[in-house]
Amino acid sequence: MPPGFKEKYFKKRVDNKYEILPEIKEMVSFSYHNLIKDSYPSLLNNTNAMDVIFCRNAIMYFGLKERQEVLRRFYKSLINGGWIFVSPAEVSQRLFAQFVTVNFPGAILYKKVIGQTEKVETQPGVKKTSYQKPKQTPSVSMHRSVFRPGSESEATGRKKTATGSLKKVLPERAQVTYKDALDNFLNGRYQEAVATLEQIIAQNENVIEATVLMAKTKANQGKLKEALEWCEKALSMDKLNPSVHYLRATILLEQDKVEEARQALNRVIFLDHNFILAHYTLGNLAHLQGNRAAAVKHFTNALDLLKNYKQDDVLPESEGISAGRLREIVASMLVR
Predict the structure, then answer these.
(1) For labeling, which of 56, 98, 188, 305 is most exposed (least CB within 10 Å)?
(2) Is the peptide bond between 41 and the residue preceding it cis, with omega within 30 degrees of 0?
(3) Taking the model in full, what pTM does it have?
């Protein structure tokens, strides 16, 4: 440990132990997340557009299918150039085929690089690995390998076909549809989604839906300023749409504009008092700010509204979260 490190970042306690400084502790927020049950990437739980993921000694306890699904979601959750750290026991060229493998002294890391997979990079001073990409017969199925989740890399990979034309990425028909864009978005092919949405908007087809999906896509790419601009465009078309106001609130929270986000969430409830996620998010905000009474009020409202849903019902605007799972989360928040 460098000289003065403890004194700079920690304070000494009366029991001669050290405690990290409060101003540093406040930079971190802790929350529960189930890698199998919970939805991600998602603006709701702040798991989108991440720069780095540390997940050590976790996926090794999952079955093969569960590991593949978790890594698929991790890939979608990272921005282009993002990193994932796993333990040495979890390193697998096969499972992490959609990532670029990077060798560091004493460690192997994985990096998301759109359009580049299965390549091993070696940092300066590190002996290059002898790993070579397995030979495969070129075919369309290569892009749908069980170990390669649908992602932006798939979109760019297709550009390397014989034609090298963007027309091969987009549907081969005159009129692109919202369904195509949504499919690209749900499978993490954000670049393809943007290209498709741009065509839809240019054709003035399903404008409000396409505009909202563009905002979500930009947010998942980490382009929050652009995402907010698309949200504003959508609201200019439908000012009374609670779902768009909620999306705007989640983006504002990503930008740490808490007060603006709170106002947007209150507007959601004014437009639709049964909007469960608005109550839940307001409860979270109150909890983080130490306002126990307000947190209990909002969480209780959310629980009351959840009674109208079955355990496995997927909640509106939740990006896949079930009523049962949110009920568990809210209940745990109430007992803290």
Answers:
(1) 56
(2) yes
(3) 0.63
